[in-house]
Amino acid sequence: MSNDTYDLEALQNGSLANLALTKFKLTPTPSLTVFPDEIFTFGPSLTYLDLSGTGLSSLPPNFTTSLPNLKILFLSNCAFTTFPDLSSHHTLEMVAFRHNSLTSIPENTLPPKLRWLILTDNRIPSLPSSISSCPNLEKCLLAGNNLSTLPLSLTQCQNLTLLRLSANNFSSLPKFLFTAFPKLAYLSFAGNPCSLSSRKAHKLPFGLLDIPYSSLAISRVLGRGASGIISQAEWKPSPDSDFTEDVAVKMFRGSLTSDGRPEDEMEAVLLAGSHESLIGVVGKVTGYSEGEREGVKGGIVMSLVPGGYEVLGLPPDLESCTRDRFTEGERGWEMGKAVEMLTGIAGAGAHLHGRRICHGDLYAHNVLASKGDGHGLLGDFGAASVYGEEEDGVERVEVAAFGRLVGDVLGLVEERGEGERERAMRRGLEELQRRCEDGDVEGRPDFDEVVEVLRGMLGWRGVMRIPEVPN
């Protein structure tokens, strides 16, 4: 048990009564159906409360006045059917009701300072028009509900940066999603009728193999995520040959993540095809037994990323919300190599949108990069969506994500000691970032133009050629 996690007995026996706790997390207690008043003894000191995994279905009337400085509230995996009235709580910034049984969000119940809203995996048919009273809303997770439209008043949330709409009932996406939000950069909508119908029109790239599970000898786990497990394996393409190849295998499992469904991720990866800045997909795993691989939705075999590649950044935390974080070890990029890496990632973006696939999570923490080679690999398709002609505006939404990536990478390049060429490249990248994040969404470049600008900086065969940058 961590220092901030306590069981119900410790809460009720009075042993915590004299502690000025700022953070309280209760161990999952499904039998708890009434809010424990003992929590109110923490009063103004409490800023973080997690009562997930309980049987709670309501909050007491004095919740707001008794915990006046609460900033973060987790009530996931509980029994709420109606969103509680938090409108008078003026310090709440993050609220999570993942995997409840919510069917209603009454008007004027959202906290006005709300920045991060998690409503994944409920049965919500609509959002309240009063969501417009949350101008700070930056991150909104709505995957796995019954939404078929969004209120026009959502456009008042001008700080909205990340929106998850996967696994709902949208037959088409509201047009205002592609023009009305100057900061929107990360959008996912897979698993909706509009995306499923578009996916049927796509064909899998030529050359993907069906790879029997029996031909893979799994050796070690490389990573675990919400949608599955990635392992290193030795692949024997032919039972009659001694030749083997080291590969990576991802087995998709689970039902729903905050980004969407594992099966939609797998389909997007397979449809993406090959590009030098995407992790290569060899084929699809076949022949595994559901009994042996309980809960598995499918699997893919990928090229094994060579040594020397490291994750470019760390995912956002509760404080940074939609911004990646970076350590000193991730810094130290040389400007020319950084531009080469960014050119490759922009090329991957152009390739994906050429196949009408939106990555949805174009972040530094989803890029594996080699400083020495100036090369990056874009991975993690958990938020990827296949789209049709009606959703063409989604590309310029994702260009904003690339603009944010450019800004992050500039922060990783050592500015001290730069020569005139490097300074000119920095000015060029700053101008490109400004254009990619332009609040006039329709005025942004597409990925093809972004690639051309970056190639212009590098010049033919790597000879530096800096475009003029307007003052």
TrEMBL record:
Residues where ATP binds: 250
InterPro entries, per the entry: Kinase-like_dom_sf, Leu-rich_rpt, Leu-rich_rpt_4, Leu-rich_rpt_typical-subtyp, LRR_dom_sf, Prot_kinase_dom, Protein_kinase_ATP_BS, Ser-Thr/Tyr_kinase_cat_dom
Pfam families per the UniProt record, alphabetical: LRR_4, PK_Tyr_Ser-Thr
Domain spans labelled Protein kinase: 216-471
One GO MF term: protein kinase activity
Entry keyword set: ATP-binding, Leucine-rich repeat, Nucleotide-binding, Repeat
Domain of life: Eukaryota
Name the UniProt record assigns to this protein: Podospora anserina S mat+ genomic DNA chromosome 4, supercontig 1
Organism of provenance: Podospora anserina (strain S / ATCC MYA-4624 / DSM 980 / FGSC 10383) (Pleurage anserina)
Lineage of producing organism: Eukaryota, Fungi, Dikarya, Ascomycota, Pezizomycotina
